[in-house]
Amino acid sequence: MMSSVKRLLIGRPLKSDQLGDQKLNKTKALAILSSDALSSVAYGPEQILLVLITISAAAFWYSIPIAIGVLVLLTALILSYRQIIYAYPHGGGAYVVSKENLGKYPGLIAGGSLLVDYILTVAVSVSAGTDAITSAFPSLHPYNVIIAVVFVLLITTLNLRGVTESASFLAYPVYLFVLALFIMIGLGLFNVLTGRVPAELHTPIGTPVAGISLFLLLKAFSSGSSALTGVEAISNAIPNFKAPAPNNAAKTLAAMGILLAVLFSGIVLLAYYYGIIPSEEVTVVSQIAEQVFGRNFMYFFVQGTTALILVLAANTGYSAFPLLAVNLAKDKFIPRMFTVRGDRLGYSNGIVSLGVLSIILIIAFEGRTEHLIPLYAVGVFIPFTLSQTGMMIKWIRQKPEGWIPKLIINTTGAIISFVVTMMFFMTKFTQVWPVLIFLPLIILLFYRIHKHYEAVADQLRITTCEPPLAIEGNIIILPVAGITHVVENSLRYAKSLSAEQIIAVHVPFEREDDAIFEEKWKKFHPEVRLVTLYSPYRSIIHPLTKFIDTVQRKASESNYQVTVIVPQFIPKKGWHNILHNQSSLLIRAHLLYRRNVIITTVPYHLKK
Amino acid sequence: MMSSVKRLLIGRPLKSDQLGDQKLNKTKALAILSSDALSSVAYGPEQILLVLITISAAAFWYSIPIAIGVLVLLTALILSYRQIIYAYPHGGGAYVVSKENLGKYPGLIAGGSLLVDYILTVAVSVSAGTDAITSAFPSLHPYNVIIAVVFVLLITTLNLRGVTESASFLAYPVYLFVLALFIMIGLGLFNVLTGRVPAELHTPIGTPVAGISLFLLLKAFSSGSSALTGVEAISNAIPNFKAPAPNNAAKTLAAMGILLAVLFSGIVLLAYYYGIIPSEEVTVVSQIAEQVFGRNFMYFFVQGTTALILVLAANTGYSAFPLLAVNLAKDKFIPRMFTVRGDRLGYSNGIVSLGVLSIILIIAFEGRTEHLIPLYAVGVFIPFTLSQTGMMIKWIRQKPEGWIPKLIINTTGAIISFVVTMMFFMTKFTQVWPVLIFLPLIILLFYRIHKHYEAVADQLRITTCEPPLAIEGNIIILPVAGITHVVENSLRYAKSLSAEQIIAVHVPFEREDDAIFEEKWKKFHPEVRLVTLYSPYRSIIHPLTKFIDTVQRKASESNYQVTVIVPQFIPKKGWHNILHNQSSLLIRAHLLYRRNVIITTVPYHLKK
C-alpha cells in the first residue's frame, strides 16, 4: 500500500545508469536555478525605497545611484562566480572554494551558513508567495500556514520525482514572470520617454536633500543587495547540467545576470519616474503595474506570475541544498545518508530534510517569515565574501596566465560583499544577531560528526591490528517463557548448531512457579539444562543480564562465545503486536547495546 | 538518567511479596474510593433545582420528595453492592457479576461502559476542580487546560507510587471536605430549627404548582441521580483491601452510603429552606455557605475543600480502572499487559493508560468537559442495571438460605436503575447518543482481541501436532558492505557454528564496483564463497531477499536451515546512530517479518 502511494507520487524507480537523462539543458536550468534570484526583484527595489522614505520622498532619486551600485555588485558577483564555475566544475560553490583556499573552518562557515540559508529561502519565499495569494483572496487568509505547508509538500514531491520533471513543470511560470515584467517595463519606459508620465511625479536627479548621510545610503544599498541572494545557486548545482557542464553553467549564469540586471534596473527606474511611494498594503511592483496598465488583465497577469515565482523561488533551494549536503557529507561533516541517491536519482534525503526543516520554520513563525529576510541576506553575503576571498588567494598562489584581471574581479567582489555583510551587522543587528549563535553551533556539530566518523574509520580499518582469536566453542542461552511450540522451535535450532552447551533460562515472578516449571521441563526436554531465576522485582531483563554476565565470564576464559537465542512471535497483522508483551524486543535491545553477546532471533510466524 | 528520574518520581521498586503492605485499611479506603461519590454532592442537588426552575421557584419544594427518591435508590444500590461484595470477593464488580449471571455480552457491555466511564470520571472531575480553582483566581483562567493536565499527571504519579502512598496523601482533603460540609449543614439546620431563617424564603411543601408533570419530576430525579456515580468503585477494588477484604469493603461501603446520604439530604434541605436559586456564576453549595457563614474563613474552607475533592474524585477512577482492566485482560478481552504489576506493585499499565486517555479528552474538549456529565451518568447506570439484574438471576437460580429479601433488594435496585437509564435516554438524548456508538465499537474491539488470543493459544499449544523435523544442517548468509573488522568479526562467528556452507553477499550500486570487490575479497577470505548482486535501483533489501529466497528453496529440500548473520555497529553514544545507515536494522526487520529465516545479530561495539 505504502509503496504504491510512493510510486504514484514520485514515479517508478530509475536505474543508476539513467542518470544522464536526468541532466538539465540551459533553458530548464535557467528556470529552476534562477527563480530565487529573479523573484527577489519583487522586493529588492522596494527595500531601497523603504530606507529612503525615512528621510523624505524627495530622496527617492538616490535610488538610481544606489541601483547602479547594486548592478556593479551584481556584475562583480556574476563574473566572480563564472570564474568559480570553471575553477570548480564539480559544484559545491562557496563551501568548496573556501575550504580549498582558506582552510577547513572558513569552508565550514560558508557551508554552514549556506545550508541554513537554503532552508530560510524555502520558508521565506513560500510564505511570501502565500501572502501574495491570500492578499488577492482575503478569505483564504486564516489558512496561510496550511497553504504554505501544502506548497512546500508539493515542491518537495516534485523534486523527489527528479530534477528534469520538476524543471519541465516549473519553467513556465518563471518565463511567464519574465515576460510579464518585460512587457511592463517596456510599456512603462515607452510612456516615460514619450512624455506621458507627468514630470512632477519625480524630483530631478541631483536635488539636494536635507538629512541624507553616507550611513543611510549604505543601509539602502545593503537592503537593495538582498535582491542578489540566489546568485550562488548555479555554482552549487553544476553537476546537474548536461555536458559540458561548466560551459553550460557559465552561460546560464550570464543569462541570469543579464535578466536580473534588466528587471532590477527597470523596476527601479519606473518606480522613480512614476513617483511610487512604498506602502504597507500594496507592493511597489503592484503599484507600477497599476500605473502602467490600469486594473486590467495585464495587471493581474503581473500579480499572478509574481506570486507564483515567489513560491517557486523555493525550488532553487531544492536544487542547491542536496548538492551542498553531498559535498559536506563526502567530507564527513554531516551524516553519510545525504550522499545516497533515491529511487529517482535525486538526493532524496537532502530533499526531504529541506522540506521538513522549512515546514518546521513556517509553522514556528506561523507563516510570518518576513523578519527572517535580513538573517537570510547575511547568510548569503558571508559565503559570498568567503568564496571570493578564496578565489583571490587562489589567483595569488597559482598565478595562472592572465591572473591579474581575474584577481581584480574577485577582489572587487570580495570587498563589496564584505561591506554589505558589515552593513547588515551595523544597521540591522537586532535582526541578524542569531547568525552569531547558530553558526558556531553548526560548526561545532560539523566538527563532532567529523570526529566520530574519523574514529569509526580508524576502528574498522582491517590493517590496524592483528586478527582476533578464533572461537573455540559456543554456549547458547535460551530464555523460555513457557512450554510452547515457539520454544520447541528455538530449541530445535539451538541443537542444530552443535554448541558445547545449551542452557534454557526461565524467569518466574512468583516463588511457587519455580518448582512447577522445573517439573514440566523435565517431561519436555530433560536433556537440556534448565536454570530458573526467581525475580522478586518482576523484571526479566535484570536477572537475565546478571546470569549472562556470569556465563560470559566463564566462557571467555576458554575462548567460548555466548549466543542468546530469542524466540519472537510474528503476528499476522501489525496491530496484533500491541497484544503481546514485547519482551523479546526489549531483551534484544538491552543485551545488544549493553553486552557483547550475539543475539539470534528465531521468528515464529503465527498463521491466524 | 531516565531510571533515576523514575526512582525519584515513583520510588524504589518493591518485591512481589511486599504486596500485603500495599493493602488499604478502612479509613484510607473510604478516603480514596469514596471521593468520587462524595464529590458529586457538590453538583447533584443543583442538577435537581436546575430542572425544577424551568417551571418556577415555587416548584422547589418538590426537591424534598425527589431527594427522598434518590435516597431510596442510594439505599437499594448500597445494599445491592454489599451483596455483590460478599458474592464476588475478588472484585470486578458489574463486569464479573453480569458476565457470570447474564452471559458474555452483557458482561462486556458492563465492563466496556465502566472502562470508558472511569476515563470520563478523571477528565470531568479534574476539569470541574480546575474550574473551581480558576473561578477563585480568574487570572489563571487561560491556563485551565495546562492546570488540568498537570493535575492528571500528579495524580497519575501518585498512583504509580502505590496505593497506600496515594491514600495517605489523599485522605486529608476528603475528610476535611466532609468536616466542612458537616459544620455547614449542622449550623444551617440549627439556624432553620431556631427560626433564624425567614419562612418567606421557601414555599411550603405541598403547594400546588402549575405545569408540573410526571415527566419533569422523573427528569429531575434522574438528574439528581448523577450524584450516585462512584458507588460502584468499592466493589471493583476489593482486592486492594486488607484482609478480610470483603468484610472491610462492605463496612466501607456502608460508611460511604451513610456519609453520602447525610451530605446529600443536608444540602437539599438547606437549599430548600434558604430558598437558593441556581445561577450560572455561583454554585448552590457556595450560596448556602455564604448564607450560613457569611464571607468568612469557613466560607473559603468549604469552597477550597470542594475544589480539592472534585480534583481528587479522579483518584477513584485510578483505583477502579486498573483492577477492572486486570479482570478484562485475564479474560483476554484487552491486551495482556494490563495484568502486569509495575515496580510499586500497582497495575502501572492501567494507571498510565487512564492518565493518557483522560489527558487526551481534556485537551480535545479544551477543559470544558461539563457536557460529558450525562454521558458519564448513563455509562454508570447501564452497568448498575446489568449487575443488579445479574444478582436477581443469581438468587433465583441458586436460591440460598434467605434469598427472598436479597432478591427484593436487587430487584428494586435493578428497576430504579433501569428507569433512571431510560430517563437519561428520553430526556437527554442529544447528549447521551454517543454511548450507542462507542459501546458497540468497544465490544467489537474486545471480541477481536479475544479471538486473536484464542487463535494464538491454539497455535502454541504443544499438544496440537507432532514435533517438527530436526534440522539437518545450516546455511549461513553474511551480507558484507566492505572489508572491515566488523565483517571479520562476523565471519569468525559464522565459522565457529560448523555450518554446511557460508555465503558472503555483497550488493554494489555501481556496475564497476563488482569486480573490484571480488578482487579484494579473494585476498581477504578466499575460502569463503562470495556472491555479488549488482543493484541498479540502489536497493539492498530487494536483491538480498530474492537471493535468500532462492537459497531457502534449495535448503528446505534437504531440511537445511538458513541463517542470516547481520553485523551491527553499536556506537558509543546514542546520537551517533543517526550518523550510520541503519541498513542492518532494515534488513533484520524486513527478513524477520516477511521470510522464515533466522537472523543473528553480531554486535560490533565502537570504543570511541
Short description:
Chains A, B: Keywords: Membrane, Transmembrane, Transmembrane helix. The structure is a homodimer of 608-residue chains. Chain A has 608 residues and is mainly alpha-helical.
Q: How do the helices and strands line up, and which of them pair or pack?
A:
2 copies of one chain form a homodimer.
Chain A (H helix, E strand, L loop, with lengths): L1 H9 L15 H14 L4 H9 L10 H25 L5 H10 L1 H33 L7 H18 L1 H31 L20 H12 L7 H4 L8 H29 L10 H10 L3 H34 L17 H17 L8 H26 L4 H25 L1 H4 L1 H27 L12 E7 L5 H12 L4 E6 L6 H12 L4 E4 L8 H17 L2 E11 L12 H12 L3 E8 L3
Parallel strand pairs in A: 1-2, 1-4, 2-3, 4-5
Helix pairs in contact in A: 2-8, 2-11, 2-13, 3-9, 4-9, 4-11, 4-16, 5-6, 5-15, 6-7, 6-13, 6-14, 6-15, 6-18, 7-13, 7-14, 8-11, 8-12, 8-13, 9-16, 12-13, 13-14, 15-16
Q: What tags apply to this protein structure?
A:
Amino acid permease (chains A, B); 608 residues; five-stranded parallel β-sheet; AA/rel_permease1 (chains A, B); mainly alpha; transmembrane (chains A, B); elongated; homodimer; APC_K+_Transporter (chains A, B)
Shape of chain A: elongated
Whole-Å distance between the termini of chain A? 21 Å
User: How big a fraction of the residues of chain A is strand?
Assistant: 5-15%
Multimer state: homodimer
SSE order of chain A, one letter for each helix or strand = HHHHHHHHHHHHHHHHHHEHEHEHEHE
- Tally of DSSP helical segments of chain A: 22
CATH homologous superfamily descriptor of the largest domain in chain A:
Amino acid/polyamine transporter I
Spatial strand sequence of the major β-sheet of chain A:
3-2-1-4-5
Would you tell me the structural class of the helices and strands of chain A? mainly alpha
Number of domains of chain A: 2
The count of DSSP E runs of length 2 or more, i.e. the number of strands of chain A, is 5
What low-confidence regions of chain A span 5 or more consecutive residues with pLDDT below 50? none
CATH topology of the largest domain in chain A: Amino acid/polyamine transporter I
* Biggest pleated sheet of chain A: 5 strands, parallel
CATH architectural grouping of the largest domain in chain A: Up-down Bundle
Largest interface (CB < 8 Å): A-B, 76 and 75 residues
Helix content of chain A: 55-70%
Quick one: CATH class of the largest domain in chain A? Mainly Alpha
Radius of gyration of chain A: 32 Å
Give the overall average pLDDT of chain A.
Answer: 85
